[in-house]
Amino acid sequence: MSAILLLVLGLGGMAAGYFFYSRFISKAIYKLDPDFQTPAHEFEDGVDFVPTNKFVLWGHHFTSVAGAAPIVGPAIAVIWGWLPAFLWVVFGTIFFAGIHDSGAIWASVRNRAQSVGSLTGVVVGGRARGVFMIVIFLVLLMVNAVFGVVIARLLIKNPGAVVPVWGAIAVALVIGQLIYRRKMNLALVSVVGVVALYALIYVGPSVPISLPESTLGLSANAAWILILFAYAAVASLLPVWMLLQPRDYINGLQLFVGLILLYAAVLIANPLVVAPMINFGVPENTPSMIPLLFVTIACGAISGFHGLVASGTTSKQLNKETDARFVGYFGAVGEGALALAAIIAATAGFATLSDWQAVYSAFGQGGVQAFVDGGATILSAGTGLDAAVAGTMLTVMAALFAGTTMDTGLRLQRYIFQEWGEIYNIGWMRKAFPATALAVFSCLVLAFGAGGADGSGGLMIWPLFGTTNQLLAGLTLLVITVMLVRRGRPTFYTLGPLVFLLVMTLAALLLQVKSFYLQENWFLLGLDLVVLVAAILVTLECAAALRRQKRLREEEVNS
Description:
559 residues, mainly alpha, Sodium/glucose cotransporter, two-stranded antiparallel ribbon, 21 helices, globular
């Protein structure tokens, strides 16, 4: 089958979702008000609360939520066949992710830009907030620790990507100054930034940089992880306009240029999808597609991490409440387009079915490297681009997105510690520097405590990321639904997705309990049980709050 059909149907469905469905949700359900004073204006401080152009904010939100996950998840999930992954990405983007992301922004903006964890205490109750905050902390810990490993391995495997990956930071710093200090035209700055970034990508393979195999007793992987966390700590403390916003914005533009090139190559080369539509011959020990498909593909369909970004940084920068539709829903569409590209690259970027099967020889194979290798093959065939440059471009794309997610993730983890300082009245923990130090320390303890001198400990708990992340998405939808009930608005559009998500996530958690027990992996078994108990407790609390709000609403209507 031609990959062009997947491209047209996928992008067409997501575009229809944005132009029609998101307009209905924004007007009839969330009732976004252009005259509502957003927290960015109410609490403007030039550091975290900064009213931002919606296009720049979209770039921040989109690249922060994208990371490597919308590449990794779909590129692994195609082991069950391309059709299940394709359907979940397209319909998940339209009916799950867009509503979740824009709804999280709206809910936070309407509550003084509180994070979804703090918001749970306001909307549901203190007990639910305490448990919810633990789930949030675990998700952030997993994201930050694992993406550090992902970037480090990409830089080691592709030394030609080092210059463009780190050069992008310098480009972002200049762009931030040009936009906010010099007040230069956004379109002109955007063009200059994209040209500079792609010039670095072109130059990168000519000046490959590799760290020594051992530095002060540390492997290259461990050294890169320490460097990345040192950078992320500094980035999380800088004003958002200085680095976070422009870095995310230019990365967003870079991604769309990359996607346009990749999709154009698909149209020109017309590669065939060699992977099976539904794979009836999955390798031995591959888990059941249902419910694992819906937690293997999180980012790209729906992801709880998006709610953390939406309510953690995005809501503090929203200029107008109506911008939530463009930033949130269209941000989800952008991520869905990236996930679709990952599916095409991982199924049509191979010469034969045998080549594809050689890579997908076990569950968990594929991932970023399948996207890079398959995408580079398609780019080279369709555009004539040198294979090394094409591979570097896709590697840089993946590394930059993982990096921007680390930037935002560490800032969000800092917010969590600061919120705990507020909740438990710990004065020093409310301050940015100590909270950042705690965030970095917790990630490094996981990285080096569980992974030893190599620093890859984050990968130990990665099997739990999908379920924990999707649980968080379901609970965020519960908070949004309770707010809708309070306002007497229809809840079907959020209640349907959250019920489906909670059922699939709880089923996946139970399957993992059995799997970890049979493997005698007591660490992951214990952590899985903690997440499972937290899921049940918060779900019961939210269900009780939902019933309570419905009863109060009925009493108001009847009185």
